Amino acid sequence: MYWVSWALLLFSLFAFVDSAIRRDDAYRAADKQTKAFWLIILGLAAAVNFFMGILDFLPIIGLIATIVYIVDVRPALRQVSGGGRRWPRGRGSSSDGPYGPFNGR
User: Fold this and answer.
1) Could you give the CA distance from residue 102 to residue 50 in angstroms, rounded to a whole number?
2) Region annotation Disordered: residue ranges (predicted)?
3) What is the dihedral of CA 59, 61, 62, 64, to 10 degrees?
């Protein structure tokens, strides 16, 4: 359980740092809650994970909030701010294969 607690703490800290580096106007453009809201929620989730055990009720609520941010809010923010893949492979067309465009033959 010790390692699970540390993993949840690192997961919530990652979500907190990720929400802190996103621009404030991206939250409005993605039609999500404000940046301050997510910073407070994810900061509380990290603090609760740090001070309480995993078997308590509040860390589970913090985990749910962190999962919501990672699964729903973060992809919307990345789409709005143009933060897709950062390596060259992600810049091609949707019909591109690993060796170039797919012609359908």
Assistant:
1) 50
2) 80-105
3) 130
CA angle 42, 56, 44 (to 5 degrees): 15
Tell me the percentage of the chain whose pLDDT exceeds 70.
Answer: 78
Spatial contact of 43 and 36, defined as CB atoms under 8 Å apart: no
- The pTM of this model reads 0.72
Q: First-to-last CA distance in the chain?
A: 54
Q: Show the tokens assigned to 27.
A: 């939250």
77's tokens: 């923010």
pLDDT score of 66: 94
Quote the CA–CA distance of 60 and 43 in Å, as a whole number: 14
Decide if 34 contacts 23 (C-beta within 8 A): no
